């Protein structure tokens, strides 16, 4: 039945695909049924299908499920539900770095969509440039930066850099702008202030976050050796948050992978209300991490 459903969807015979998949329970058939509902603009029914079979669909095609789920939420302006969905997906087992990157970007996407109420609408070119140039509102700036996804970023390097010069922009928004410059391999020397530190660097010459050591090794240890799965997810989340707060500084300034994994493990257990002792080097790193997190709260209303 799966091949027949696929053919029907590809031929845009959505009504026939719905008839054929009416009692479907397997992942592939559900996926094509979802595609048919989307093709007929039946957002309510598509969202109901996602809510009922989210885990099954995610296991079959995690990236497509994520993107479809949140695009539907934005179109339907269901922002509270989107945050609940994000908690659900964030607590599923690790799939890939690509999925993790999508999950990390979603809090900002949800905030920007909710703040401006754009839902599924796209910002126009002139709106993007005007926001990047004139706005001091962090949510507007985040929305404009998000709207650059899929575009040739090399055409917007100076526009993106303007965000780094905005005094009132939240540091998380500035960090996002820097990440875009890094991903676009910006070859220009840039001078800016971020989280109280002054930088003079060429974005194309610095390494993206969440790569290399000690980050990857510390994350591996936290995912494989942590005895508590909930604690492991909290620890990895704190690791990612700290990595972004430090960027473009390297995570290694706080210690090696073993020290960092011990520090984040201990901090996660504390978050869960459990006492935990760690060695002196890990304790020193833990105190530094806690101070960074306290000093740099994430963007919120």
Describe the SSE topology.
Blueprint: H1 2-10, H2 14-20, H3 27-39, H4 43-60, H5 62-75, H6 79-90, H7 97-116, H8 125-134, H9 138-146, H10 157-164, H11 171-183, E1 190-194, E2 197-201, H12 215-225, H13 229-246, H14 257-271, H15 280-295
Antiparallel strand pairs: 1-2
Helix pairs in contact: 1-2, 1-3, 2-3, 3-4, 4-5, 5-6, 5-7, 6-7, 7-9, 8-9, 9-11, 10-11, 12-13, 12-14, 13-14, 14-15
Describe this protein's structure.
This protein is mainly α and 301 residues long. The protein is 64% helix and 3% strand. It contains 15 helices and 2 strands. The protein has helices at 2-10, 14-20, 27-39, 43-60, 62-75, 79-90, 97-116, 125-134, 138-146, 157-164, 171-183, 215-225, 229-246, 257-271, 280-295; strands at 190-194, 197-201. A two-stranded antiparallel ribbon has the order 1-2. A hairpin with a 2-residue loop joins strand 1 and strand 2 (197-201). The model has no long low-confidence stretch (mean pLDDT 88).
Identify the quaternary structure here: single chain
- Portion of residues in beta strands equals under 5%
Cα-based radius of gyration, to the nearest Å: 21 Å
Number of beta strands: 2
Quickly count the helices: 15
Large-scale geometry: globular
Reported for the largest beta sheet, the result is: 2 strands, antiparallel
Explain briefly what this protein structure is:
The chain has 15 helices and 2 strands. The protein has helices at residues 2-10, 14-20, 27-39, 43-60, 62-75, 79-90, 97-116, 125-134, 138-146, 157-164, 171-183, 215-225, 229-246, 257-271, 280-295; strands spanning 190-194, 197-201.
């Amino acid at each position: 039945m799966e091949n027949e459903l696929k053919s029907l969807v590809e031929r845009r015979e959505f009504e026939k695909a719905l008839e054929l998949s009416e009692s479907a329970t397997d992942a592939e058939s559900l996926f094509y049924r979802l595609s048919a509902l989307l093709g007929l603009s039946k957002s309510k029914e598509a969202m109901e299908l996602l809510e009922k079979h989210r885990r099954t669909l995610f296991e079959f095609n995690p990236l497509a499920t994520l993107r479809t789920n949140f695009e539907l939420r934005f179109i339907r302006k269901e922002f509270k539900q989107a945050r609940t969905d994000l908690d659900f997906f964030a607590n599923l087992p690790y799939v890939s770095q690509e999925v993790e990157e999508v999950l990390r970007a979603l809090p900002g996407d949800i905030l920007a969509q909710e703040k401006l109420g754009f839902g599924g609408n796209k910002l126009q070119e002139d709106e993007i440039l005007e926001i990047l140039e004139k706005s001091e509102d962090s949510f507007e700036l985040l929305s404009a930066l998000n709207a650059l996804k899929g575009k040739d970023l090399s055409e917007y390097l100076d526009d993106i850099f303007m965000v780094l010069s905005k005094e009132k922009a939240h540091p998380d928004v500035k960090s996002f702008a820097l990440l875009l410059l890094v991903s676009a391999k910006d070859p220009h020397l840039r001078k800016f202030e971020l989280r109280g530190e002054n930088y003079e660097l060429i974005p194309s010459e610095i390494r993206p976050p969440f790569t290399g050591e000690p980050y990857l090794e510390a994350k591996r240890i936290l995912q494989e050796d942590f005895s508590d799965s909930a604690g492991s997810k909290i620890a990895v989340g704190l690791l990612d948050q700290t990595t972004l707060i430090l960027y473009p500084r390297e995570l290694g300034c706080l210690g090696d992978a073993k020290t960092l994994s011990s520090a984040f493990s201990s901090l996660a257990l504390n978050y869960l209300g459990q006492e935990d002792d760690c060695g002196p080097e890990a304790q020193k790193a833990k105190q530094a991490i806690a101070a960074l997190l306290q000093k740099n709260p994430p963007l919120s209303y």
